[in-house]
Amino acid sequence: IFDCDDDPDRPSWGDIYSPAQMERVAGMVEVAGWAIDLDGVEEVEVWVYGNFIDYVDEFPLPSPEVEVLFPWLPDFYTDFAGYRYTMDTQALNLPDGEHVLVIRTRDRWGGESIIGERTFVLDNLKNAAALPLTR
Fold first, then answer.
1. Given Cys at both, which of 44, 107, 130, 134 links 39, Cβ 3.0 to 4.6 Å?
2. Are 87 and 25 in contact (CB under 8 A)?
């Protein structure tokens, strides 16, 4: 059986470098990786447990490692595919424990794609207890 995909939208793809799978983190957490869409990435979004957190504020960033992964793609897709976002887990009032981070993109035609998912372990309480009290 052949099924022709008549959807003109092509999905994005990418990766999440940080946090690593099951990495123990606290406070300000760097979320970083890369995203490519042949229709152009317009937005990169950060989600935790199905809740929208924010738009990535550092995109596009240089990404020479992506050109190595996909040498057949034109440079304008791979040269600046990187993204970075600093997530303040304390301001978000996330409880300690495991959390699922999802990165979603939107292209110029409005097509949305999930390009990655990571589970990280939040440990703000232990790290807060280790800090000296200031007066």
1. 107
2. no
